[in-house]
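Suppose a colleague, Dr. K., hands you the sequence of a protein chain of 130 amino acids and asks what its three-dimensional shape might be. Before reaching for any lab equipment, you can write down a predicted structure in token form. Begin with the sequence itself:
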Amino acid sequence: MAEFMYDHVHLRSPDPDATAAWYERMFGARVIKSVMSNGIERTDINLGGVDVFIAQVPSDASLADKADGSFVGLDHLGLRVKNIDAVCDELKGKGAEFTIEPKTIRPGVRIAFVRGPQNVLIEILDRDVA
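The predicted structure, expressed as tokens, is then:
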């Protein structure tokens, strides 16, 4: 079987620069300007070692509907941290909107969820809780 390696996530936004700036402010993502294969400029970020491409869509493009508790397709991005409660306090200070406050889901594991631009959910995960 062929070997597959993770390469990138691709987001779409009516304002890629603002979306990239949000990830930079909240999570310390590195903003990268690039050019797509068709020659159009694109704003990308590197978030925790993962490349995230952010393509421009028209400002009137509709947001994918996510019914409560029912998702089809990509559900969320996950970011692992240490000391989740301190991290979440810092994110709250930056104005992050939490959809799920920090909670223990099993011994040693705590999670929280933040809503990002274009309704992208980001899980904050600590697997090393004492």
